[in-house]
Amino acid sequence: MKKNVLIKGFLFLVLVSLLVFSMTGCYPAPPIITTGTVYIYIYGTCYYDIYVDYIPQFWGASPYYTYTLYNVPIGTRYFEAYDIHGWWWGYDDVYQYIGAGVNYVYLWP
Asked: What is d(CA 92, CA 87) in angstroms, rounded to the nearest whole number?
């Protein structure tokens, strides 16, 4: 009789502990961020075309103005600013690592 009561008591404790653990569950893992936001600052006297990795992003960009790119993949990126009249009038480029979150790029064409 005592053995039967001990087995039932042990099984009851196992059942209760399984219910407790199943109801609490696990916290979800935070998402992995793979992109960043880039603020591009242009310092110059003319209007510029802005490229990122040789892909045009902004045309006729005004100097002393901030341009924003969202969802830029993490990694080293190549930023360029060309004067709208040609590179001989004004040009600047920079390689910059873009991380998750906010990044700043400064170009002085």
From this structure: 9
pLDDT tens digits, residue range 49-78?
A: 999 999 999 998 888 888 999 999 999 999
Six-digit token string for 84: 């709208």
Alpha helices in the chain (DSSP H): 2-24
13 falls within a domain: no
45 in any annotated domain:
yes
Tokens of 39: 């603020």
- Classify strands 101-107 and 91-98 as parallel, antiparallel or unpaired: unpaired
pTM of the model: 0.70
Residue 36: Cβ within 10 Å count:
20
Helix (H) or strand (E) holding 83: strand 75-83
- Written as one letter, the residue type at 13 is L
The answer to whether residue 63 sits within a structural domain is: yes
Range of the domain at 100: 35-107
